[in-house]
From TrEMBL:
<keyword id="KW-1133">Transmembrane helix</keyword>
<dbReference type="InterPro" id="IPR000515">
    <property type="entry name" value="MetI-like"/>
</dbReference>
<feature type="transmembrane region" description="Helical">
    <location>
        <begin position="12"/>
        <end position="30"/>
    </location>
</feature>
<dbReference type="InterPro" id="IPR035906">
    <property type="entry name" value="MetI-like_sf"/>
</dbReference>
<feature type="domain" description="ABC transmembrane type-1">
    <location>
        <begin position="95"/>
        <end position="311"/>
    </location>
</feature>
<feature type="transmembrane region" description="Helical">
    <location>
        <begin position="129"/>
        <end position="152"/>
    </location>
</feature>
<keyword id="KW-0812">Transmembrane</keyword>
<protein>
    <submittedName>
        <fullName>Peptide ABC transporter permease</fullName>
    </submittedName>
</protein>
<feature type="transmembrane region" description="Helical">
    <location>
        <begin position="178"/>
        <end position="201"/>
    </location>
</feature>
<dbReference type="Pfam" id="PF19300">
    <property type="entry name" value="BPD_transp_1_N"/>
</dbReference>
<dbReference type="Pfam" id="PF00528">
    <property type="entry name" value="BPD_transp_1"/>
</dbReference>
<keyword id="KW-1003">Cell membrane</keyword>
<keyword id="KW-0813">Transport</keyword>
<feature type="transmembrane region" description="Helical">
    <location>
        <begin position="288"/>
        <end position="307"/>
    </location>
</feature>
<feature type="transmembrane region" description="Helical">
    <location>
        <begin position="246"/>
        <end position="268"/>
    </location>
</feature>
<feature type="transmembrane region" description="Helical">
    <location>
        <begin position="93"/>
        <end position="117"/>
    </location>
</feature>
<keyword id="KW-0472">Membrane</keyword>
């Protein structure tokens, strides 16, 4: 097991290095002069030359990459051309909103995926049908439909905004401020559901197929022959042997959720890194774009590494 964890961690580090290298190359060879973008078009040649030296832009390529990598490890992702603040500062302001949105959406996806996979009654068929229809719709269309139904017609949920800053839900839950928690939950439900529908179907399909395959296995028939109840058979012999593929898909979908927040956050005016990225692209704010890319890529890599480790703990055969 220790060898598997070491190999998986090493592979994650290598992928992170490749990611930072790709982002660095794209940033270096992007059109435009980053110094003039930062200082402004009217900056004097002397000021531009001094800033180029300060940013190590005249150093050899490998030297520049080493400087970029060491700075990134220390938490320095450069200065945003648009906000003129450190990118890390901007990410610190916008990332909590995205994290809470994705966490709530992921919980929705796990719950809906489990319902999709396990319920065999008419209600389960209805849930699967609704999820399949929702998953086929583009996120912006699903979002607009939710806004029209739950905000414009029913008035149950707000259409935009978040209701606060920072880790709003976590902080209000810890402090017991239930009014703030309830308001924050109202704001997050609709965008989280839109973000969760397609991942829920993917997780549910994989888990359902794995459960059906395991239910037909010899050891399950033997357990039933011994007189165990269906609940005992499912809990002891089916679920643990079936959960691996579902965990893998859940890890992939969690990474995809962080990539999909750009569209959802724009529609719902959610103050997260998706909106920050969308505002940075038209301004050619390359440090901000690169910073968001590195953070999202790192989240995706770390998430899948953790999922692989959880799979190995659930089924030690994977670590062999």
């Amino acid at each position: 097991m220790i060898g598997f964890l070491t190999r998986r961690t090493g592979a994650a580090i290598i992928v992170l290095l490749v990611l930072t290298g790709a982002v660095f190359v794209l940033q270096q060879y992007s059109p435009g002069d980053p110094v003039k973008a930062y200082l402004g078009a009217n900056a004097s040649p002397a000021a531009v030359a001094a800033e180029r030296v300060s940013l190590h832009l005249d150093d050899p390529l490998l030297s520049r990459y080493w400087h970029y990598l060491t700075q990134a490890i220390r938490g320095d992702l450069g200065i945003s051309f648009r906000t003129h603040r450190p990118v890390v500062t901007d990410l610190g302001a916008f990332l909590p909103a995205t994290v809470e949105l994705v966490v709530v959406a992921f919980l929705f996806a796990l719950l809906l995926g489990a319902l999709f996979a396990t319920i065999r009654t008419l209600a389960g068929t209805l849930v699967r049908g609704i999820l399949l229809v929702g998953a086929t719709a583009p996120p912006f269309l699903l979002a607009l439909g939710g806004i029209i139904l739950f905000y414009a017609h029913l008035g149950w949920l707000p259409a935009t905004g978040r209701g606060g800053d920072g880790f709003l839900l976590a902080h209000s839950l810890v402090t017991g401020d239930w009014a703030v928690f309830g308001a924050g939950l109202q704001h997050v439900v609709l965008p989280a559901f839109v973000l969760a529908v397609a991942p829920a179907v993917s997780i549910g399909r994989i888990l359902r197929a794995s459960l059906q395959q395991t239910l037909g296995a010899d050891h399950v028939r033997t357990a039933r022959a011994k007189g165990l109840t269906e609940a005992a058979v499912f809990g002891r012999h089916v679920l643990r042997n079936s959960i691996g593929p579902g965990l893998s898909m859940a890890g992939l979908q969690l990474g995809f959720m962080f990539a999909g927040v750009v569209v959802v956050e724009q529609i719902f005016s959610w103050p997260g890194i998706g909106n920050y990225l969308a505002e940075s692209i038209p301004a050619a704010d390359y440090p901000a774009i690169a910073g968001v890319t590195v953070v999202l890529g790192a989240v995706y890599i770390v998430t899948n590494t953790v999922v692989d480790m959880i799979q190995a703990l659930a089924d030690p055969r994977i670590a062999l």
